[in-house]
Amino acid sequence: MAETAAPLGLAGRLRAGETVFNLWTTLPHPAIIQAAARAGFRSITCDFQHGLYTFEGFVNCVATAAAFDMSVVARVPTRDHPLASRLLDAGAGAVIMPMVNSAADARALVEATKFPPLGMRSWGPHTAVTFSGLERTAYLHQANEFTLAFAMIETEEAVSHLDGILTTPGIDGIFIGPSDLSVSLTRGRHVESTQPPLIAMLEKVLVMVLRHGKFAGVFAGNADQAREYAARGFKLVAMGTDLGFLRRAAENALARAKGEAPLTDKQPF
Ligand code: 3PY
Ligand code: MG
Question: Domains in the chain, start-ordered, CATH in brackets?
Answer without folding.
Answer: 6-152+216-257 (3.20.20.60)
